[in-house]
Amino acid sequence: MTEYKKPPVDPDLVNFAEKNDYDSLAKYLVGNVYRYRENIIIPRILGPVIIKTNEEKMIEATVESCPFKSLTSCIIGYGLGAAVGLFTSSLMPNMTDPMAQQNQTAREILREMKNSMLSYAKNFALLGAVFSGVECCIESARGKSDWKNGTYAGGVTGGLIGLRGGLKAGIFGAAGFAAFSTVIDYYMHQRG
Predict the structure, then answer these.
(1) Full pLDDT tens readout for the chain, 192 residues
(2) How far apart are CA 24 and CA 154, in angstroms?
(3) In the chain, which ranges are E strands?
């Protein structure tokens, strides 16, 4: 058996490690400790690559938060409820006293319209805020965005709102609102 001999050291390799230029080049090519933002290569699929600033990320996180979604749904629900209240008050005039004069004054009609609009606006605002908040919390807890979130949120919202009329009304409200939410989600996903 022959004894293993160490190969001779190449003098060029020793010079490479001793010279500062080659050493810094090797560190840059093999890997350095500095990561500059301008050197990041992001593969692009469509359009230019846009790196978001911290302010854009903060605004995006605020807009996607559950309180913001709930507040937005509350405001939109209030406006929609006011429009529905205005429409229904024009279809069904409410006569408070049947023995009173058949001719109502404009002030009485406007007062009825205002009361109807405020009633519908409050109900729609509450409904929108509760549904949106519950759905967002369920989606955050589950970590998924699918049709089940709307169904669960509809059940919880319908149950909470129906509980004002009793347990039976709460159960029927939960089942009805969950079914309605499922149908709406199915319809919206089929269109898109």
Answers:
(1) 677 777 777 766 666 555 566 666 666 677 655 655 666 666 777 777 777 889 999 999 999 999 999 999 999 999 999 999 999 888 876 655 565 556 778 888 888 889 999 999 999 999 999 999 999 999 999 988 888 999 999 999 999 999 989 999 999 999 999 999 999 988 887 776
(2) 62
(3) none
- pTM for the full predicted model: 0.68
Question: Under 8 Å CB-to-CB from 149, ≥6 apart: which residues?
Answer: 135, 138, 139, 142
* 174 in Cβ contact with 158 (< 8 Å): yes
For residue 123, count other CB atoms closer than 10 A to its CB. Answer: 16
What would the two tokens of residue 101 be? 């004069």
In whole angstroms, give the CA distance from residue 89 to residue 79: 15
| CA-to-CA dists, residue 47 to 22, 54, 87, 112, 173, angstroms | 38, 21, 46, 55, 47
Read off the tokens for 19: 């010279």
